[in-house]
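User: Please fill in residues for this 400-position structure.
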């Protein structure tokens, strides 16, 4: 250990638990693990082996133990509960911090001796049997957690309404992107974008929640523009085949890029960013676009309005006409684009950082050391439980 390395925290290990993730939740857990370890806090990450392969949690200095929690409920959940109990039995757990409803349910069923914290990253949008089961899981998780952290205000309200003893807004910061590796011209050349053509970018999981069908239908109208914009979508997911078929049928100028690790480069080449989701907390790509100074059109859903403020052009969800009109207005007015980009950068400068997120969590864990049963929880001025100073402008977990 060097003089600059903090001594390990003697109060025990923070256990971070997550389900299968290919995007925002995994990135957030990796960021938190890294920050805690750098502060001298021992960390054990538990989650699917495939998720660890993507995010390399051990590279942060944390330990990793596989606990297979799928994205959807399965009979294998019982094995996940058993695996988590085994992991906790061999660990001096200070706190168990589950990320997402699926991980929260497994943690609740495992009944850890240490205080349970659950971060709610997503709303339940599914209908039918799956939706009913998910809403039941929400109630179990809300009532089992010592503290429920919401990535957006609506999630905090949801947890409180379902019986959470202590529900708080958490400043979940998106990891900063690296500097672009390629010049703008090189990025645009990859997609055959001519010098005067606009490049419109969206990034996210190809999932029905993201409503890329709305973007495709709007883009089909832009074929007649001169010059026509090039639209690219980076991301993978279960909606790929249906979106590819829709693009083909509509003859929309949209290219599905698949999974990309060069989002910073894509933003450097883009003229406009678009988010068409039915719901988001504080989406990762929305943050990345504003930080990069790329004008953003986004749906006014979930935590996005409180995230972007006047730094983006907001439209109703599911409205092809509104997306079409907003994009056209920006493409037709370079001055408006430049003004929106400046406002976005200013807005992003006020967001909490990764260090702020870790500092908030460390303070929470310390609070639980002295008050593990939750005797001091109280409601803030907005009617939410927990300390009033928990923050009001946390950014997104985004690419979930």
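Assistant: Residues filled in for all 400 positions:
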């Amino acid at each position: 250990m060097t003089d600059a390395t903090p001594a390990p925290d003697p109060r025990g290990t923070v256990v971070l638990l997550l389900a299968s993730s290919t995007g925002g939740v995994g990135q957030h857990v990796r960021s938190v693990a890294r920050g805690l370890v750098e502060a001298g806090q021992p960390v054990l990450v538990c989650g699917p082996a495939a998720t660890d392969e993507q995010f390399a949690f051990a590279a942060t200095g944390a330990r990793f133990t596989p606990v297979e929690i799928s994205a959807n409920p399965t009979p294998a959940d019982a094995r996940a509960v058993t695996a988590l109990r085994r992991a906790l039995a061999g660990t001096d757990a200070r706190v168990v911090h589950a990320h997402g409803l699926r991980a929260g349910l497994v943690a609740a069923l495992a009944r850890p001796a240490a205080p349970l914290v659950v971060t709610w990253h997503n709303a339940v949008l599914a209908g039918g049997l799956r939706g009913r089961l998910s809403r039941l899981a929400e109630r179990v998780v809300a009532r089992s957690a010592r503290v429920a952290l919401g990535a957006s205000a609506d999630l905090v309200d949801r947890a409180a309404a379902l019986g959470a003893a202590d529900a708080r807004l958490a400043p979940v910061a998106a990891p900063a992107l690296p500097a672009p590796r390629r010049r703008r011209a090189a990025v645009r050349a990859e997609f055959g974008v001519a010098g005067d053509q606009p490049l419109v970018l969206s990034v996210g999981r190809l999932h029905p929640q993201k409503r890329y069908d709305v973007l495709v239908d709007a883009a089909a109208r832009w074929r007649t523009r001169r010059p026509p914009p090039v639209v690219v979508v980076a991301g993978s997911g279960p909606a790929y085949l249906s979106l590819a078929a829709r693009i083909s049928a509509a003859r929309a100028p949209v290219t599905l890029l698949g999974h990309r690790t060069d989002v910073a480069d894509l933003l450097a080449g883009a003229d406009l960013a678009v988010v068409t989701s039915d719901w988001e907390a504080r989406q990762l790509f929305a943050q990345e676009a504003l930080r990069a100074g790329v004008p953003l059109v986004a749906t006014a859903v979930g935590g996005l309005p409180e995230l972007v403020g006047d730094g983006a052009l907001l439209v109703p969800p599911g409205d092809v006409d509104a997306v079409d009109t907003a994009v056209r207005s920006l493409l037709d007015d370079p001055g408006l684009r430049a003004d929106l980009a400046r406002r976005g950068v200013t807005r992003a400068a006020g967001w909490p950082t990764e260090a702020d997120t870790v500092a908030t969590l460390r303070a929470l864990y310390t609070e639980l050391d002295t008050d593990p049963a939750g005797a001091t929880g109280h409601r803030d001025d907005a009617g939410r439980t927990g300390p009033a100073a928990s923050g009001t402008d946390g950014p997104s977990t985004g690419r979930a």
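For context: Residues 184-349 form a domain with the Rossmann fold fold (CATH 3.40.50.2000).
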